[in-house]
Amino acid sequence: MPKGSPELTEKRKNEILDACEKIYREQGFYGVNIKKISTEISLTRSSIYNYFETKEEILLGLLAREYDSWCEDLEELIDSAEKLNNAMLASQIAYTLEKKEILLRILNMNLYEIEQNSRIKRLAEFKKKYLRSISALTGILHSFKSDIEDLECVEFCETFSSFLFGVYPFAFHTEKQKEAMKLAGINFREPTIYQMVYQCLLRLIPDKH
Description:
By secondary structure, the protein is mainly α. The chain is built from 12 helices and no strands. The model has no long low-confidence stretch (mean pLDDT 95).
C-alpha cells in the first residue's frame, strides 16, 4: 500500500472503483482492464497496482462498496420493521435493491472469475461485507417477528441469497438475447428488480402470529 494519509488512500481507491464502474457499465467484465482504468483517472498503471493486484480485485472492491451501501439501507429498516406487515416489509427491502444493478450484475454474472483471481485477503474482506448483509437481514426479521426461530432466519437468508444470485438476467436482456428468444419462439418479459424481489419476499417473509 502506498504511503499517505488514510483519507488520500481511500480517495485514490474510490477513484479507481469509480473508473472501473464506468467501464463495467459500458463494456462489461471483459471490457475492464487496468490500462483502461488508468486512462480514466490521474493514476498510472503501476500506481493502481499499489492498491489492487488484478482487475478482478478492483471489481471485488466495487462489489464490496455496493454491499456497504446496501447494508446501510438494510440497517435503517431494523428499528421500523416491527411496525410493518408482510407486504410493507417486502416492499421496503425490495426498494433497497431497486438501484443496485451493479451489485446484482457482478454477483450474478462475474463473481466466480473475480473470486478465482483475487487474493484470499481481499476475498475475506468481501465475505465480511456479505456477512454484514446477513446480519442486517436477521436483525430485520427479529424486529419484524420477535418470536422468530433462529432456523427460520437461517433458512430465509439462505433462500433469499440464492435468489439474489440469479435475479439479474431475468431483469436485463441484451438485444442479442432478445432476438434469439424471438427466433426460438420464447415469450419473455422483463420484470423490474423491484417487482421480482418483492414477489420473492412475499413468499419468504414469515407471517406474524
